[in-house]
Amino acid sequence: MNYILNIETATKNCSVALAKEGQTIICKEIAEEGYSHAERLHVFIEEIIQEAGITFQDLKAIAVSQGPGSYTGLRIGVSAAKGLCFALNIPLIAVDTLQVLASQATISEGLIIPMLDARRMEVYSAIFNAKFEKQREIQAEVITENSFETIAETVYFVGDCADKCQSVLVKSNFVFLEEVKYPSAKEMSALSFSKFQNSEFEDVAYFEPYYLKDFMITTSKKVG
User: Fold this and answer.
1) How far apart are the first and last CA of the chain?
2) Residue 89 and residue 223: Cα distance in Å, rounded?
3) What distance in Å separates the CA atoms of residue 63 and residue 8, rounded to the nearest whole number?
4) pLDDT tens for residues 34-60?
5) What are phi and psi of 162, to 5 degrees?
6) Residues of the chain with pLDDT under 70
7) Is the omega angle on the peptide bond into residue 68 within 30 degrees of 0, that is, cis?
8) Cα(49)–Cα(132) distance, rounded to whole angstroms?
9) 3-state secondary structure (DSSP) of residue 143
10) Calpha distance 77→209 (Å, rounded)
11) What is the pLDDT of residue 36?
12) Residue 202 carries which DSSP code?
């Protein structure tokens, strides 16, 4: 059996999921205002392995959310993932955080725009279609009333930016799915398994998260 442990710590949600053949079988997560990743992450990992009735040696790979997101959260998740890969001599898989977030929206048509809070009116965002195929690469941008104005299709916003963006993004084709707030490791399972099957692995020694540290103020590119 191909067991993959998925780790998602890019936001306030500390999330770990065990997948078998690309299907999530156990997930443990908690989203708290004060980041508890350092305390919770390894506890979740140990509990999941025990509850699944397997050993760490049964794992075929470790997948980690690569960012963008919280510097501290990403660092904790990647450090844990690397440590497990080194100790077990198994591959490291990196999964796009915004794709994980977008995967929680089930739509038949239109576009999904996952947004993670940066600061003030700044967000990290990307654009996906209903099949979760990326239509625009990740950007760090400042949201204004003109953001995404050229998109004629229905746009579904997900992420932790609803509170600050709903009063600005008011076009009739803009829909906020407020129940989809944070990325979760359970949505990583299919994505990481696909990469595992294609041997899309990272260099454990040199892999770094996608911090987007050099924030550049940009305007939304025209899509549509």
Assistant:
1) 43
2) 43
3) 9
4) 668 999 999 999 999 999 999 999 999
5) -60, -45
6) 33-35, 213-224
7) yes
8) 30
9) coil
10) 9
11) 80
12) B
Reduced to 3 states (helix: H, G, I; strand: E, B; else coil), residue 175 is strand
Residues sharing a CB contact under 8 Å with residue 24, sequence separation 6 or more, in sequence order: 6, 17, 18, 185, 186, 189
Rg (CA), the chain: 17
**How far, in Å, CA of 147 to CA of 220, rounded?**
5
Rounded Cα distance, 46 and 51, in Å:
9
- Cα separation of 54 and 35, whole Å? 29
Residue 124 and residue 135 in contact, taking contact as beta carbons nearer than 8 Å: no
Please tell me the distance from the alpha carbon of residue 31 to that of residue 34, in angstroms, as a whole number. Answer: 9
Q: Which whole-number Å values give the CA distances from 9 to 104, 127, 208, 224, in the listed order?
A: 16, 21, 14, 33
> Which residues, in sequence order, are CB contacts of 39 under 8 Å at separation 6+?
none
pTM: 0.91
